[in-house]
Amino acid sequence: MRRSSGRFFLFTSLVVVRLAGTLLYRLHTYGRVRMLALQATRSSLFWVSVPIFFINFALPVKSKALGASALEIGGLFSLFTLSLLLFRPLIGILLDRYGRKRFLLLALLLYSCAYAGFGFATEVTWMYAARFLQGLGAALLLLSVDAITTDLAEVTERAEALGKNFEAQARSTFVGATIGFTLIAIVPDAGWRISFFIFMLLAVYALVVALRFVPETAPVKSVEIDPTGLSMPMLSVLVLLVPLGFVSAMMMPIYLVYLQDMFQPDVRWLSWAFLPAGLVFALLPSKFGAIVDRYGAVAPCAIGLALASGLYVLLPVVDGFWAVVAVYTCAAFCWAVIEPARKAMTAQVSGSQIARGFGLAEMSFGLGAVAGPLVGGYLYDHVDHALPFFLNCGVMLVSVVILLLLVRPKLVAQGLAARL
After folding, report:
1. Are 373 and 250 in contact (CB under 8 A)?
2. Whole-angstrom distance, CA of residue 402 vs CA of residue 7
3. In Å, what is the CA distance from 371 to each residue of 135, 250, 255, 374?
4. What is the pTM of this model?
5. Cα–Cα distance between 279 and 69 in angstroms, integer?
6. For 145-184, what is each residue's pLDDT tens digit?
7. pLDDT tens per residue across span 72-87
């Protein structure tokens, strides 16, 4: 009897050990596959985003060479923003309904076509067509990448993972600027065309990487939060994102114009003025995202907004070109916290409709971003050079109030803010 009991115990122990080993192996394999999928998604984002900074600087120059007026050049930038605003909410719904991967692949294909169009355009009409394809591709790309990242990342690692996406884009722009400006300096007549031929090949490579290594991550079915698909926490976050988009978009052009008017620097010095902030965005969002994951999104976002508001007030006060650059760079540290925090909040309140939530959030952010430069430019030209900086400070403080008095209570009421 004892021998039978001993054999039964031994057999049971072996079965338990085997099952535990199998479970651990599968967990390890799943974690490794998940990590490789995130890396592949981020790699595709990196390579397709290479020329973004170069386009923003060189597009007006190339368009003018093709005979575009100032209004037509401005239209190229408005067309891109309008494409993002119009398509993102619909794309978010489609991503939740039909999956993520096919739309990521479509985005990369559109980027490849857009870069080819930019490179071989011989008239302004072709530039508009390429810009429209780029805008539609951007709307698809950013939403699908954020949705895939949110699907793959653990809940306690989302902000860090989304911050790494931000870093990937920032780092890629250094590569694109090096390629584009170097080729234009070496072969001025053909530099633009050669650059975009290279950018097109890199976008095709990104497409191949995504096709081969990025999995479909959409849930099997989605659960409606309420009949409209919008919860009260989601609505409160959408309200918050409008002023955030306003201040985010207003500051860069005003900063550039202010440096030119106050210090009349050489164009090369202007590029150096953006380099420190670019390095901040290339290196730190994931690090600050890890803090957001640990302590929650509300407190880091509120602290970042409050500190940035004070720094923007200092910009028209400090003396010297490099002093202004230093203050602007310090504000970039704050935005490296705010960006992953706002995306983490969006993912948190979106429920099962992750892509739709990101689409609506980016639409709200974009609405503010459209108004910011227009209001800031008008105040700078017609009222006072310092007024946009003070307005930025005021709007950021209002955002802090909205975050603490509107967003935070809604998160707490829905049980979504265990860590604040």
Report:
1. yes
2. 67
3. 18, 8, 16, 5
4. 0.79
5. 34
6. 999 998 888 888 888 998 999 899 989 988 988 888 888 8
7. 766 677 777 777 778 8
